[in-house]
Specification:
By secondary structure, the chain is an alpha/beta fold. The chain has 16 helices and seven strands. Strands 2-3-4-1-5 form a five-stranded parallel sheet, with helices on both faces. Helix 10 runs parallel beside helix 14 and helix 11 packs antiparallel against helix 16. It is elongated.
Amino acid sequence: MSGKNPNISAVYGHIKSKKFLKTYFLYGDEAHSLKEASSALYAALKELAGSDMDCYEFSGEDNPLAEVKACASAFPFSGGVKAILYKDFEKVKDDKLLDEYLKANYDFTHLVIVNSGIIKSFEKGYLKELKNRDCVFEAAKPRGADLQEWIMQRVRQNNKTITKEGALLLLELCGDERFMIEMQLEKIFVFLGDKQNITPEVIMELSSVTKQYQLYELHAAVAKKNGEKILQIGFNMLERGESLIGMISSLNKFFMNLFRMGELLNARKNDFEIQRELGITPNTLANYKTARNNYGDAEIMRIASALLYADLKLKTVSPDELDIFTFLAGAIVGKVDRVFDQEFFS
């Protein structure tokens, strides 16, 4: 019973072969993949049903499972099959009825259940039965090397080419939100036209056109310990609606990688080994080298504490975001001595 569930991309194979399961349980924390796959699967099942009268959409927020079960158990109007999409299953209160539904095994109904969020165990009840039937598919957020590989695969699907370094650069500029990466790739595809190669220069050029200030540029200013530039970039990002929580997360990753880089340098690792260990590009490594000259280990840990403190403040008392970023900029350049100053956000 243990083991990883199949990736949600497997359902596209079912669509292509037109060989469908009676029940699909799609879940995970990657909302974009979850929505795309469930929509594509339901569209294919609607085509199989052949009549709109036998196609239904329900929501766990508005429709209890008992209502869905009653619909699924009724014979199709067309005499063929039914297609049912049941979204927001995580909000269902009478989910235990799914045990009864699975035991009934209605041959004429195809049910697609969509559960937003991570499920840690499939060892009990209907979850165990779903897993035993091989109808569970996970939309997990690709991270690190998986996300890098996804970018390269997406590029190949559009008859373009990109190096691993180029994919990493795109990750650094866009962050790990797949929807944002997808949008940036679409802009790149349009920009290239008939050209095939996505170079770092193309990525940087389009990034500078679409966003005046990027996390990449913020990291460069942080590496140089340029307080004025840090504030300028940070304020512009916030004014454009960038997430301060995301900025804090990115800065935390930057400084944790910087601390790790010190350990790698002490272990006499070369540039290539450091890039591989940290998952960064040569351009980013240059930033990190600059930063290592400006920040000692004790200072890095002090800044990490400031980032944690700011993150907690942001999530608990909702202070002004510009005030928080001003505090962080001061902590980064060493002008805030007391990280846990209770008066700062009052």
